[in-house]
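Continuing the batch. This is chain 6 of the set; chains 1 through 5 are on the previous pages. Same settings as before, nothing changed between runs. Recording input and output for traceability.
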Amino acid sequence: MKKFVYALFAFLSVGLVTQVQAQGIHPRVEVAGNFSTHIVNNSKGLSVKDYKMRSGFRVAGAVEFSLLGPLYFAPGLAFQQNGSKVNGHTATLNYLSVPVNLGLRAGLGNIVALSFEAGPSFSYGVSCESSFKDVLQNLENEGFRRFEAGVNASVALSLSSLYVRLGSDIGLTNIYKKKADAESLKNASFYIGVGLRF
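Output for chain 6:
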């Protein structure tokens, strides 16, 4: 899986860099620490508080297309580790995600800029590692939905081509497939990382 992620990241980087000279088009690549948990409701509709945050990583790329003034469109591709911890057990759910964002970028001088992005995201679960037997059984028996829709937002501070980004992804899809409708499990995470904008 790691080799696949690295190859995908390298391929995306090369493809994006070839567009650097195009006016109004800015490719970017970034790496981040991803901190995730699950939003859980039991059959009585009560939130389950025992799910704790776990740390993972996120690698992503996107292309910014200038629209009007400071407004831009930024579709992207990301690999990120979601999951949670409960009572000493850890579940890691790996996703490929396609965020489709609108952004607003404002210059704060000659080389400093602040940008904000938000929009929907569409994810596909590619693998899982867990010390929860029921989580593994759910995946093996197709008990989890692999496709997930969500929303994401982020803010970035740029210094020339280098930037720092803080963002969040919230899943809107109940990834339980076979459990009662009253039960739900949704992904939620925030991340902080660094990147290069070309």
